[in-house]
Amino acid sequence: MASTSALKRADSVIDTMPEALRQSRYHMKRCFAKYIEKGRRLMKLHHLMDEMEMVIDDKDERTQLLEGLLGYILCNTKEAAVVPPHVAFAVRPNPGFWEFVKVSSVDLSVEGITATEYLKFKEMTVDEDWAKDGNALELDFEALEFTMPRLTLSSSIGNGVNYISKFLTSRLNKDSESAQPLVDYLLSLNRHGEKLMINETLSKASKLQGSLIVAEAALSALAKETPYESFELRFKEWGFEKGWGATAEIVRETMRSLSEVLQAPDPLNMDKFFSRVPTIFNVVLFSVHGYFGQSNVLGLPDTGGQVVYVLDQVVAMEEELLLRIKQQGLNVKPQILVVTRLIPDAQGTKCNLELEPVINTKHSHILRVPFRTEKGILPQFLQLPNEYCPFFPQSLCCFHLQQDATNKILELMEGKPDLIIGNYTDGNLVASLMASKLGITLGTIAHALEKTKYEDSDINWKKLDPKYHFSCQFTADTIAMNSADFIITSTYQEIAGSQDRPGQYESHSAFTLPRLYRVVSGINVFDPKFNIAAPGADQSVYFPHTEKQKRLTSFHPAIEELLFSKVDNSEHIGYLEDKKKPIIFSMARLDTVKNISGLTEWYGKNKKLRNLVNLVVVAGFFDPSKSKDREEMAEIKKMHLLIEKYQLKGQIRWIAAQTDKHRNSELYRYIADSKGAFVQPALYEAFGLTVIEAMNCGLPTFATNQGGPAEIIIDGVSGFLIDPSNGDESSAKIADFFQQCKEDAEYWNKISAGGLSRIYECYTWKIYANKVLNMGSIYSFWKHLNKDQKQTKQRYLQMLSNLLLRDLVKSVPMPREEAQPLVPKE
Ligand code: UDP
Ligand code: LCN
């Protein structure tokens, strides 16, 4: 029986649902009558289950039904739109796979429907006129890419670059002519007008193949280390230009991989060849919001992990670029510019400086360009939209920023960049506008997309727009993700979620903003543009506590004061009575979602844990009246209440937000010395840089199972996963760990070592930079190969941006403070 139902489960919902309903017809008729009883509405899984429970009160019968196919279908239902007499179901049997069906409550007949039809059902629950308007604006991005290959397995999602190599292999394998686009692409490579790799002598694939054979033979007679210069002239006569490699050995390897590709393409040689092609020297990164600076900014509004990520990314990319350029035998200085906004009223930060070198790089800079409106330059900081600060002028300013930044970038780089990478909605928008204008390869990074953070944020957009401006945000996100040649994510779940929860990108596949537009295919998570490249932590700062000679011991007196002094002041409150106990430590912004107050409560309630360890949290500050954010204010008050309620003084130290990463890293290690642990208890975390910082320091880590950390940590091996919605279970798991450490001193070392090996295997900036530069190289060629289709899509996106987004952003209120008039240039 089990195997039959398993087989059936592999079938589509439309095939299996009629029979499943027929088998429980009596109960189902009553169930559907209940569903439609309240009229039009949207139902989630828990509503469907609760109402089924009301109708089928016999537990055994219910269990039997839920164990069958019907239960399987219902459990995979993400949403149902009730429009009597029908109930339309959106079923997601696997990550990325959606099926839509409508069921009649009258006769239980089932009909498959399209995404468009489902969205109309959904709209009927809030706005019948719009749903029935035959001329409503529909966006369909897949319609423009009907010939582009798509992946088919959920497990392949996020591995795009590997599949692009395979697709390229088959494209170049068709006939004798199919390698010509590769030759044309190589012919187009140049650096400031100076040709690279090949010149017009080798304009045909057959000629190139022949010359490669001759060149390889010549190379085999040379010593491996022979520099390119010593055979450059001879190679030039044969049609070869610089860029193949610095030495005879490297040139030979690169030539061999191209020869293999031209003879019979295979993904391995394709990858190898493209990792060596000199296409990327200058990169522009956009990270627009927050206080983008290198010191004293973390913890300021909108200033968190993204700033850390981008700065570390620059260092790693420059290092990798320098290495590659050296291996290519070129004498070129790579340049990376991080473009952000200039804030004249910089509040003590350096955000009013136009150009600032990036620490630990040789040639990279932060370029700050002011936000401008028609009235002039905006002097003050602008927060991303939230309830307290309902402005989203970022989008409006992005249009201007793109124009103002372009000239500056072209001037500083003495030409166009080779790759543009955006970060988050605002940065991705500017990046996509610029990439489209200059015709440059575009990568985008979201860090976190807002759409999934609020239930039904699409259908209810009108209600939420005054607070959050989702109409602008979702439009900007959809435009940027469609413009991108490749999308970098930190985790799989960011793209396609998990078995139970749709991914952040996946939630853009079909959605509707009634009265504005209906997106019938917004993004396809099976598009090979998606790539997982997880960030790392700066390993010169976050290194294991056991590396004694590197330890920053000069911070110890300050750290000891921070942890153990008995005074309450503006930097810390609470104290630790028993200094010998291990410490459980957490550090995050004091947002509700970070759940620092949750951790405090779990600790307060768990006597065993309190006996075993102390609690130290670094988060926000202590005076709610100083907060401008309603959420933060509530969290501060809650923290004080919990400390009071559970009488935590003597066992808790609450430290205000810290901005010195060197001191923070030593704090992680100091806590590791105490044989403590790091706890990241967030209700949801997109990635979680603190998790990998702690693991890099060798501190055993407990992290939320909701979001990115669930992929970082292998439970029980490289750390532990905890369920933020089950505090008792989570605190018991932490207590058990410390109990076990008491009984077996080696256990702590084992988990600490497990965390470190996981980091070295998957979460380093070196791995990241290598992956991202390979993407830049291979997607540039892919874009070249598909330029006609790319251009068509680009025109469609430009139209949407100009017709839709520009109008939407105009309706967003600007801050009251007047902009400063532009000072005319000398
Ligand atoms: N951080 C910090 N001081 C604080 C809180 C956080 O320096 O008081 C740093 C932390 O070390 C990490 C980043 O800010 O590098 C937070 O990144 P994460 O990805 O954990 O969360 P986000 O704030 O981006 O949501
Ligand atoms: C944003 C977040 O919310 C974090 O989870 C990430 O770690 C950070 O950006 C860096 O990507």
TrEMBL record:
Its EC number is 2.4.1.13. The keyword Glycosyltransferase applies. GO terms for biological process: sucrose metabolic process. Residues 10-123 form the Sucrose synthase N-terminal domain. The lineage of its organism: Eukaryota, Viridiplantae, Streptophyta, Embryophyta, Tracheophyta. Sucrose-cleaving enzyme that provides UDP-glucose and fructose for various metabolic pathways. It catalyses: an NDP-alpha-D-glucose + D-fructose = a ribonucleoside 5'-diphosphate + sucrose + H(+). This is Sucrose synthase. InterPro entries: Glyco_trans_1 (IPR001296), Sucrose_synth_GT-B1 (IPR000368), Sucrose_synthase_pln/cyn (IPR012820), SUS_EPBD (IPR056736), SUS_N (IPR056735). It comes from the Eukaryota. It is an enzyme of class 2 (transferase). Residues 575-748 form the Glycosyl transferase family domain. Residues 269-564 form the Sucrose synthase first GT-B domain. GO terms for molecular function: sucrose synthase activity. The keyword Transferase applies. Keywords: Glycosyltransferase, Transferase. Belongs to the glycosyltransferase 1 family. Plant sucrose synthase subfamily. Residues 159-245 form the Sucrose synthase EPBD domain.
